[in-house]
Amino acid sequence: MHRKLSMIALSISLFSLSQLAEAQSSVTLYGLIDSGLTYVSNAGGKSDFLANDGIIQPGRFGFRGSEDIGGGTRAIFTLENGFSLNTGAFSQPGLIFGRQAFVGLSNSKFGSLTLGRQYDFVWDYVTLFSMGSRIGAFGFHPGDYDHLAGSLRINNAVKYTVDPIGGLSVGVLYAFGGQPASASNGRAVAAGARYTGGIFSVAFAYNNVHDMPLNPPAQIAASLGPSFPAGAFVAENMQNIEAAASVTFGPSSTRALFTATTIDDSKSSVTMRSYELSEVFQFTPALSGSAGFSYTRMSPATWRNVSAILDYSLSKRTDVYLSAAYQNASGGARAAFLAIPASSNGNDVAVRVGIRTFF
């Protein structure tokens, strides 16, 4: 009888330990899907209706894991890939986890140290202040040269982030060159900071990426200038300096954003600057609206973009939206929204209705 009670006690102890181990570690499958219909007034010279996905946010799925290893420290990892809902294809051909793939340690006091393929601090800290974070591809700046749309994913990166004071987050990143990536091939240095407190928020980000593949005719429908190659080339250096701020009163949030992108190749250099102002208003708990204007100049080319969106939440995970954007380009440039064919002239309009769901 005593032996039987001992076996029962041992079984209960083993079961309790297994439950504790499960509670200390977790793996989460997550993602989002966005699809809809878009009317474009000038897609390569003609108006068109497009069934496209990933416009407000690119489709993705991923795995996020965490394990408590004691002392306030956790082992963490993220594996994330992008895909097209309409074709089933990966958004980064040849890469299983093209958006993010990293592993590291996170401590509640000392911050997080991660290694792998990772985003910069433009994406982490500044993007959420942009009109593109609300409307998607049609609200970002030409070619995403300032990386607000998240096109920069850096290989071979070591990244450290910490929250030293309540509301303040800071981080640094260094990437070793030598292996190909979808957006950058060479060494990279990045840093950023964001403060959120009460009604006021502010963010700053800096990037310096070497050996950046660019194709201006395809990406911005303009030339960088007569001293640069006419087509695709690898820029020796691409530098981003970006700052943003917002002020929130009740349901209304006013946001301002500035980005400066400098591209250097041999003895040539050009800078693209963008200025943006936008407003977000929460009409009801389910209905929100946003509108914004951006001005981008890379002498002599200029782009002006006016965009707006109405978004209605059907549930905590699913929403429907109606968006519209108008872009005007001059100085030798053509209108060029992200993710759709460039206009044949300096003007383009895109109107979209869509649905998005998270899982």
From TrEMBL:
GO terms for biological process: monoatomic ion transport. Keywords: Cell outer membrane, Ion transport, Membrane, Porin, Signal, Transmembrane, Transmembrane beta strand, Transport. Pfam families: Porin_4. SUPFAM superfamilies: Porins. Its main location: membrane. GO terms for molecular function: porin activity. Residues 1-23 form the signal peptide. PANTHER family: MAJOR OUTER MEMBRANE PROTEIN P.IA, PROTEIN YDDL-RELATED. This is Porin. It comes from Paraburkholderia pallida.
